[in-house]
Amino acid sequence: MFLARCEKLDRDTLIWASDLLGIVNTKDGMVVRYRCVCGETAELLTGSRSDVRVSVHLGLAA
Ligand SMILES: [Zn+2]
């Protein structure tokens, strides 16, 4: 599990393994796609090139 910022709820939330939808390696680092607690699909850029974890909601609420 890891911490991610929910931009909708404006607070840090815990993302569990069961919330993970996929992991993609990009030139900027590893992008983790997950189901946020608010119900939206979000992506989090992690890895050596990102000092700050940036979470982006994709607006694909199911
Ligand atoms: Zn959220």
Q: Total helix count?
A: 0
Give the CA-based shape.
globular
* Main pleated sheet: 4 strands, antiparallel
Structural class: mainly beta
Give the low-confidence spans: none
| Hetero compounds | zinc ion
Query: Which strand-content bin applies to the residues?
Result: over 45%
- In total, the number of domains comes to 1
Strand numbers in spatial order across the main sheet = 3-4-5-6
Helical content stands at under 10%
Mean pLDDT: 84
Number of strands: 6
Q: Can you write the helix and strand succession as a string?
A: EEEEEE
Q: Nearest-angstrom radius of gyration?
A: 11 Å
Please give the alpha-carbon distance between the first and last residues. 22 Å
Quick description:
By secondary structure, the chain is mostly beta strands. It has strands at residues 2-6, 11-15, 20-26, 29-35, 41-46, 54-57. The chain binds zinc ion.
